[in-house]
Amino acid sequence: MRGKSLKFVLLLVALLALAAAGCGGGDEGTGTSAGTGTGGGGEGGTLVFGTASDPVVLDGSLVSDGESLRVIDQIYEGLISLKPGTTELEPALAESWEISDDGLAYTFKLRQGVTFHDGEPFNAEAVCFNFDRWYNFTGSFQNPSASYYWQTVFGGFAKTDPESGAPEDSLYASCEATDESTVVLNLTKPSTSVLGALSLSSFAIASPKALQEFGADEGTVDADGIFHPTGTFGSEHPIGTGPFMFDSWTRNDKLTLVRNDDYWGDKAKLDSVIFRPIPDNAARLQALQSGEIQGYDLVEPQDIPTIAGDAALQVLDRPAFNVAYVGINQAIPPMDKIEVRQAVAAGLNRQEVVDSFYAGRGEVANEFMPPEVVGYADDVTEYTFDPEKSKQLLQDAGLTLPVKITFWYPSDVSRPYMPDPKRNFEAFKASLEQSGFKVTAKTAPWSPDYLGQVDEGNTQLYLLGWTGDFGDPDNFIGTFFQSPQKAWGTTTHPNNEVTDLLDQAESETDLAAREGLYQDANRAIMDWLPGVPYVHTKPALAFAADVQGYQPSPVSLESFAPVTIGK
Amino acid sequence: MLRFIVRRLLLLIPILVGLSILIFLYLRALPGSPAYALLGDRATPESVAAINREYGLDKPIYVQYWRYTKRAFIEGDLGTSSRTRQPVTDELKRRFPATVELAVGAMLFAAIFGIPLGFIAAKKYGTWIDHTSLFASLLGISIPIFFLAILLKYVFAVRLGWLPTVGRASVLIDLEHPTNFYILDSIVTGNWTAFVDTSKHLILPAIALGTIPLAIIARITRASVLDVQNEDYVRTARAKGVAPMTVDRRHVLRNALLPITTIAGLQVGLLLSGAVLTEKVFAWPGIGSWLVDAISGRDYPVLQGGVLFIAIIFVLVNLVVDIAYGFINPRIRFS
Lengths: 567, 335
Fold this sequence. Notes:
The complex is a heterodimer of chains A (about 575) and B (about 325). In chain A, the strands form six sheets. Chain A has a seven-stranded mixed sheet, sandwiched between helices. Chain A is α+β, with helices and mostly antiparallel strands and about 575 residues long. Chain A has helices at about 1-25, 65-75, 125-135, 150-155, 195, 210-215, 235, 280-290, 305-310, 340-345, 350-355, 385-395, 420-435, 445-455, 475-480, 495-505, 510-530, and strands spanning about 45-50, 80, 90, 95-100, 105-110, 170-180, 180-185, 220, 225-230, 245-250, 255-260, 270-275, 295, 315, 320-330, 360-365, 405-410, 435-445, 460-465, 530-535, 540-545, 545-550, 565. Chain B is mainly α and about 325 residues long. Chain B has 14 helices and no strands. Chain B has helices at about 1-30, 35-40, 45-55, 60-75, 90-125, 130-140, 145-160, 180-190, 190-230, 230-240, 245-270, 275-280, 285-295, 300-330. Chain B is globular and about 85 Å long. Classes of the chains: A alpha+beta (about 575), B mainly alpha (about 325). At the A-B interface, α1, β1, β9, β12 and α8 of A face α2, α3, α4, α5 and α7 of B.
């Protein structure tokens, strides 16, 4: 009796298992895509790139997040671009440019014979249409989370809403299309950082016809004040001049670009690029290993040995473009004394921190900007770990040892330049205490508490860092030191030499002289010691081994056009 | 019956009001704000204030709540995501089908393997088969989903290459989405390649997510079958000489199914509220992974709307389970 019923159940299980397997089993090979990417050989084919999320919208002027910009960079071009892998300017839609002697007028000679993906001609009028569009943004477009880069570079708008938080004054005066292929960009005051900034994808030129036809500026603001675009420009009809054209976008699933066969420059080698959102880092790695994607960005440092050890995969380094530093607030004594700041610099064992906590992805920083940026000086004063010297400096300053200081570090945060703030802090505390200091630890959650305390000037010593937006020294040392900030104590303890150098550099139109001024500023800063920079970190990308031609850029301006797949 | 359903639905109102207040207060008690999440390192006091003002977050909390409630409950408008700038309801329409598809897959897997497993264990009570099944279900309950998912993917996708690791369909599959249930979409549009492909994509996530329900169902089935098979009516049936298979099918399994239905119903409710880990690991674009991303982005509209939606689904599923109960067990009366 028992035996019979068991047989029935076993049969049932077997049948169900079979059904379940059959349900998914199907034909072999369809779908699971080991080799979706390979196009057979040489050129052509499709590359699938795993991204951390979907883009927000494919309109460069309204976003500042990396995943949106990654796709935008393939579809659009700006007047100026960067030499692949560097922060050096190179002509893009503008073939050449001239700066007037007063530094107020930038004349761009445009490339001719370029058309937008919708067949519309690219010309001076189109360029000015875009600049005027940005300058005339209203309402939610003035939100700092939308037009962040416009506000960073050009400041305010034609009619700046006083509630928007945007700067009142604008650097932008006007755009003139003097003939079909000449554009003059007029500024309200000289600023040479504009050139570098124009390489940002946020200033890429879109087809005026498409912007209007597909309602790029249309939308509603809901009761929460959040802007919801109702036009389809940024979601279905993003039209630029780039080497790839938009094909389709299924949210949360895939975004497909196809080659622009009418591209003016070297045409893309791939037939298409598909961006696939995979939010989880471990899942991206497995998708790469299984061949479902052929590349992804922001590889976790702990995964690098796995990828490097797999013959079918490769790791690409992106040059460092950030800096982490120990900030010093000179408004809180005894940090106003240069000897004490020098003692802090000699008391920080930066090499040990970089070696211990950055998995081989970090290099010790000697300046407040990475070496890849123009204006980096090779001969600034360097500070090495020397506890005895530190103690001596403190005594020279007339202090009795140990000197009591408070040192802040953030909790609940991980940044590329600071994966584990607490461990950095603990190592620094230990080395400072060897060097004649007595450290009181203070901590707060990163946002808003910690950042608030630092911004308000309440922190004597603190850990902080910065990732650059674009390849210009103004975006690093200009951001830090050109205007007084409570965090450094520069509101009460200014350094006029440094601010003068930075002001001069910003209005210097001769690029070589400008570079020299920024180098001087870096030398002056490292003698003044408003803080101690300690690390630049290199992010990593991972690709299948047969993907060639991808050139990582410090500012992540990376084109898929030269990329090939397959042997 | 109708009165029962209406009363249960009316009960939804206080639940939703209470829950919406809770989630509203809770979100605002979290450190950080949408402004800091949007601006990151670049936040300045001015830009944070501007965003707060724009989103109305500078208003007193009861004003914010009233405005939200009025819109959500009266106009059915759940707002716009502060990160993706997409209407929350649009995103729900895209993501809920994904969650349902995964939940159904997981429950099918759990029921198809869990019920027979529990049944055999009960039939072979005390033998090594029983012990093995107990051990297996214990393992199923205790193994972390995250670990299991990674392991499954490693074996079946990375090593063997049989199944995909992420998403709902291969990128090269062209599929229309009339319903947003991908498997259903492929059937409706008669796209059989897509059907095979989307089914394959469902297998590993469904197994990862279905393991715990499977283990629970197996154990409940075992206990329930053990109970039922000692009942007088089963003994009577056997004594009458009814074929053992018929006894098992008609008398034992059918009666044992009652508690299983309850448990399965509760599990479905849980699964529908979004399988956070599974969705994350398999890049399955459902409700769970959406809410997690919304928490780190302090995306208040998404969190408020998403949690309310889940609450409604949870209550409705429980209602359906209760009604289904009546059909399985006619002795139950709705009152």
